[in-house]
Amino acid sequence: MEFQFQSNIAEWTRDLEDIYKRQIPFATAQALNDTVEDIRDHHRTILPVIFDRPTRYTMNSLRVLKADQRRDLVAGVYFKESNRNGSHYLMPQVEGGGRPRKRFEYWLIQRGIMASNEYAVPASGLKLDAYGNVSAGVITSILSQLAAGPDAFQWETARSKKRAGSSRSRYFVPQQGSSLRRGIWRRKGKNAIEPVFIFVTGVTYRARYAFHEISMSRAQEWFPRNFELRLLAGIEDQRRYRISRGLSAPPSGWSM
Q1: Bridge-partner residues for 204, per DSSP?
Q2: Read out DSSP for 5-39?
Q3: What are the distances in angstroms from CA 14 to CA 18, 147, 207?
Q4: Secondary structure letter of residue 119 according to DSSP
Q5: pTM value?
Q6: If we measure between CA atoms, which residue out of 56, 98, 76, 48 comes closest to residue 209?
Q7: Angle formed by the axes of helices 211-244 and 24-50, to 10°?
Q8: Is 207 helix (H, G, I), strand (E, B) or coil?
Q9: Closest CA to 181 of 252, 233, 120
Q10: Could you read off the pLDDT tens digit of each residue along the chain, which spans 256 residues?
Q11: Measuring CA to CA, how many Å separate 125 from each of 102, 134, 165, 202?
């Protein structure tokens, strides 16, 4: 995921004195880096507005690619890739469409518990954490009891089941032909049951996080300001250097 914008640096610096034009690449790189850092920080301020109680991981998922005047003048803001197919879990919120499959869903499919075209969505009986997510402990218990986890030594055995007693939540998948909806259910005590995950054939999100538009607007607003500040600072640095060497260093009349 990337975005691009163009600037008219050549036009901005048309009237710059020749002795100071060597500062342009350095000022451009610095201004690009200032801009992408500002974009990243700006996104961090609006993530809690768009999403309900985003986790620390979500808040810190944005990275910056810094420009280097010695190699290229490219900078960017991007999401750290997190899953096996290289896409970030927030991408469906940016572009819309189906969400990436979660790791525990792969294990359920591999064990034949869930069909390859199904997804597991939280149901009414599932208690979520403060961020609206399923706790790792619940996922581990489900995979263990259903013998669907990645580690066979963590699967629940008859002995461990007996040792845990009736107080432990019992997870099960209804058999084919059952009147219960397809999914993972929890048995509470002897007679009560409740759904914790329901299996559905698709999970589609509408685009609600205008990452590209927000980034573009911020870049167009802040890059010219950052470039002007960095170039003026570079000009003054070069003037001081030239003066220290007894070279001509006239004040620059340049401004944007």
Answers
A1: 98
A2: ----HHHHTTTS-GGGGGGHHHHHHHHHHHHHHHH
A3: 10, 70, 42
A4: E
A5: 0.71
A6: 48
A7: 150
A8: coil
A9: 120
A10: 556 667 789 899 999 999 999 999 999 999 999 999 999 999 999 999 999 888 888 899 999 989 987 777 889 898 886 554 556 888 888 888 888 788 899 999 999 999 999 999 999 888 887 777 888 888 988 888 888 655 544 444 555 455 444 445 689 999 888 999 999 999 887 788 999 999 999 888 888 999 999 999 999 999 999 999 999 999 999 999 999 999 999 999 898 8
A11: 20, 12, 21, 21
* Rounded Cα gap, residues 72 and 25, in angstroms: 9
Write out the two tokens for 51.
Answer: 């999403």
Residue at 176: amino acid letter: Q
Residue 117, class by beta-carbon neighbours within 10 Å (0-12 exposed, 13-18 middle, 19+ buried)?
exposed
Cα(254)–Cα(238) distance, integer angstroms: 14
Phi/psi of residue 72, each to 5°?
A: -155, 170
The DSSP code for 126 is P
Torsion over CA: 152, 154, 160, 166 (sign): negative
> What is the full DSSP assignment across 155-204?
SPPHHHHHHH-TTS-EEE-PPTT-SSPSEEEEEETTTEEEEEEEEES--E
Look up residue 80 and give its amino acid.
K
CA 25 centroid distance within chain: 31
Residue recorded with tokens 């170039």: 231
